[in-house]
Amino acid sequence: MAAVLTSAVLVPSAPLLVPELSGDSAESAQVRAAATAAVRRLSHEAVHWVGVGVDSEKAAGELWRSGVGHGQIGTFAGFGADVRTSLDADATGEPVPSLELCALVAGWLRARADEEITVDMHAVSAEASANECREFGKQLRKQLDSDNRPQGLLIVADGASTLTAKAPGSFDERAAGVQSAIDDALTTGDPEGLLALDPQLCRSVGAQGRAAWQVLAGVFTSSSPSDHPRSTVDYSDAPFGIGYHVGTWRP
What is the 3-state secondary structure (H, E, C) of 179-245? Predict the structure, then answer.
């Protein structure tokens, strides 16, 4: 059977997805429902997922780390509740308190899927350039295409966190323009639009998901122009002053 990338699902890297951390607010429930529905659709297409998120650590010389959280139990205790997650069903041992947020979110969503899923998680440095992210995306596409299982891609990333005065990063007047460019690219399935995002500007307005989305762009620019993705949107809004997007890109 020929290997195939079935689809890429895009979800926020947000602790508010977890009810024990966010309560029953309408805003949290809406984005949670959209993300859960998206990963359940993905689980019907592929039970092996490759996940991509942003590495909050700034390890010298490391542009990305692979195998993040493999075989480990994670916990959201650092965010206020000891909700445990894992990226595969066979994970054992005591929870790792320092597991990356993107891996925690991916593990929590994995457990919401309808099938038994394994997630091979990668964390890309927030310092990686657009070209470096594109090249990593191309490498991932080769990895996906070399496997004999239907493959799903899970992108865990947030937009600007400075969209309102009450946002975690306070207000930055530049954030709306950056978020608009992100929303346009994600909504229309525009890899080049994502690659055009300026890393320094994104960092300044708290759009830490930039690197993960540029890896996604590399995945979809690694083959022929006919591979331009078809995009569907389940959720695109900025509750709490942070840009969140849930959607799917299909080859």
Answer: HHHHHHHHHHCCHHHHHCCCHHHHHHCCCCCHHHHHHHHHHCCCCCHHHCCEEEEEEEECHHHCCEE
User: How far apart are alpha carbons 176 and 17 in whole angstroms?
Assistant: 23
For 192-215, what is each residue's pLDDT tens digit? Answer: 999 999 999 999 999 999 999 999
Task: Write down the pTM of the prediction.
Answer: 0.95
Q: What are 181's two structure tokens?
A: 């460019």
Res. 95: pLDDT tops 80: yes
> What pLDDT, in 10s, does the model give residues 109-150?
999 998 899 999 999 999 999 999 999 999 999 999 888 889
Residues paired with 64 in a beta bridge = 124
Closest CA to 8 of 244, 236, 230: 230
Q: How far apart (Å, rounded) are the C-alpha atoms in residues 201 and 213?
A: 15
Q: Rounded distance, CA 158 to CA 90, Å?
A: 29
CA distance 167 to 129: 26
Domain boundaries, the chain: 5-250
Of the CATH numbers 3.40.50.9100, 3.30.70.20, 3.40.830.10, 2.60.40.1730, which one belongs to the domain with range 5-250? 3.40.830.10
| Residue whose pair of structure tokens reads 């299909």 in the numeric block | 250
